[in-house]
Amino acid sequence: MRRFHLSPPVAALILAVILFILSGLLPNGFGSNLDIARSQATNIVRLAVFLGVIAAGQTLVIISGFEGIDLSAGSVVTLTAILTYVYVNGQDDKVLAALLISFAVGAIIGLINGIGVTFLKISPFVMTLGMSGVVTGAIIVVNHGNVSGKVAPIMTRIIARPISQAIPIPGAIVIWVIFGVLMWLLLERTTFGKNLFAIGVNRVTATLSGVNVTGMNLATYTLAGALAGFGGFLLVGNTGVVLIQLGQPYLFPSIAAVAVGGTLLSGGKGSYWGSMAGAIVLTLITSLLTTMQMPDSVRRMVLGATLLVLISIYGRQRGLRQ
Amino acid sequence: MKNRFTWDFLMTRYPAFFPLILLAISIIVNWILQPNMFDRETLNSNMRVFLPLVLVAVGQAVVLIGGGIDISVGGIVSIVNTILATRVGLDGSTELMWRYVLVSILVGLLAGAINGFFIAHLRLQPIITTYATSFLYGGLALFILPNPGGGIPASIAEIYRTTTPLKLPLSFFIIAIILLVWKYISSTRYGKYLFAVGGKADAAYETAVPVTSVQFSIYVISGLMAALAGIAITMLSGSGNAEIGSAITLNSITAVIIGGNSFSGGIGGVTGPVMGAITLSIIQNIISFAHINTWWETLVKATIIVIALAAPGIINLLRRSGP
To answer: Is residue B13 part of a domain?
Structure first.
């Protein structure tokens, strides 16, 4: 008899749907009004996009194993958001260049992380934590606490507004779906993806089977940085304002989203679908807690307890005896 | 040739060797910027500020050696601080204070036991588990004390601030006791188990090491050290603030790594992390004494830390590519 098995991304999505339906029964929930329910659901997914994109780079470095993690993601998001904001300054024709700059700046920071981790053998946790401090410090030095700039109208139009009157889906969600497909292709249909899982499972066997572990490691951190940079670009398109703490609140949730999505934090196993589902679940829980109007302290405790329950359901590592 | 052997030998056999160099450099720089650094008064006031981070780093070091990580320590520090600040109060009696110090230690042990239960018994991943419990503990601290306030009697805070047995700071004695206890523990059967579990839990299990109990115990130890740090930080500040522990978590991890321990477990000790924590605190001191423009502080501090982290790797690279 086969044991009933539910893959983590599916489990997370089912959980999200159940939670959402239950939230309708709250005193100020949507009740039986389907229109409100639909717009609430759309809104939650829209908010999840940014966490989801930031979690993409995190997914890559975590799958690559060797305690891979990217704690600089939050500050990179802030940096590229500020760069985009200042550079674009309300002009539509500069948006494409700003997008490229965001990718490039993120990639450079990711590459430095990769160099530290690969060549200087610094554990990723402290290397990226240190970089996070350096980037935050650089932001403070450069903008001296205030920045002047403006988001271009076209960014708001594409990212934050619905595609058209008939289709009330915000552009961000469409971007996310395309992004998700690309991530899936990258992980499942390319040599890079195959090698990534290979080095995540075991670096020695990967080297012996001809994988360039050093190159892969550098590429992974660089790509993760670039994706965080992209996250910053998207995020500023949605918020329309920048602040020094813009990206930091996404940092640990992005790791949590990856874990909730069933990606092993020890590497070698996981999917981006999982991280997407994880991002939706986490955003849903956070926004539910916000609408329930509880004090901050209770909210934090409920969030912590929910997270514990979530990972207890399917985040368990294999037993010692197996 | 012989010289080269010595360096490699020192680096591999004594994980605390490089941290000692870093500590020496930072002490010298600090001494230049602050000539009265070794005055009894200055030394004591520095050490009592450093002690909480040292205590947390010791707990974190044990967790990392055992192959885990604990990012809930800041939350535990905050809970202890808020308990003491609200239950003892500014005009509490000494007896009341000691009673709640005891309660705080029990709370720390309990919080560590909760982490340990989820990680060792339910086999959840340490980083995400302690991230979740950091919300639980941080939220609880905020629940106990929503707004900064409260405190402990000044007379009790003075005990921590001004006690200098043999004219040496109290912190020296506490650190000495910790190092002696660690020396004893690492020679016991438990110490061997700890390194075995951190090195390779599966292999340790095969050789009949009680892996689950050891994994459970490291979080209890970390909880205890965090509680002690919470008590120290409360006696230092004399007041309550639910966010007081939030900065200490990541600092403690950085301190342990600067202290020469490996992130992957099974290697290292506690002496290095103690030095790492002091080095990290001295760097903060140096920044404030060097009269660096406020805007530059974060950048300079982070850069120094990254260089300190990168230094062993850079030296190894240079040595390998050299003649």
So the answer is: no
pLDDT value at B117 more than 50: yes
- One DSSP character per residue, A93-104 reads GGHHHHHHHHHH
Q: Which residues contact B209 (CB under 8 A, 6 or more apart)?
A: B193, B196, B197
Quote the minimal CA–CA distance from B137 to chain A in Å. Answer: 7
3-state secondary structure at position A116: helix
Q: Count structural domains, chain B.
A: 1
* Inter-chain touch A255–B131, beta carbons under 8 Å: yes
Q: Summarize the confidence of residues A42-46 as an average pLDDT.
A: 90
Position B1 scores a pLDDT of 47
Summarize pLDDT for B22-45 with one digit per residue, the tens.
Answer: 999 999 999 998 888 888 888 888
Q: Is residue B30 in some structural domain?
A: no
Optimal mutation site among A125, A142, A299, interface B, most CBs of chain B within 10 A: A125
Helices (H), chain A: 8-23, 34-63, 73-88, 95-118, 124-143, 153-155, 171-189, 191-201, 203-208, 213-239, 251-260, 272-291, 296-314
Residue spans per domain, chain A: 8-17+37-302
Q: What is the pLDDT of residues B236-290, one digit of tens each?
A: 999 999 999 988 999 999 999 999 888 888 888 899 999 999 999 999 889 888 8
Whether B4 is covered by a domain: the verdict is no
Amino acid at A277: A
Copy the structure tokens of residue B139.
Answer: 């939220």
- State yes or no: ipTM above 0.90: no
Q: Which residues contact A317 (CB under 8 A, 6 or more apart)?
A: A264, A266, B123, B124, B125
CA distance B41 to chain A (A): 32
Q: Is residue B98 part of a domain?
A: yes
Answer yes or no: is pLDDT of A202 > 80.
Answer: yes
Predicted confidence (pLDDT) at residue B169 exceeds the cutoff of 80: yes
Question: Under CATH, which number does the domain A8-17+37-302 receive?
Answer: 1.10.3470
Indicate which CATH number applies to the domain containing B107.
1.10.3470
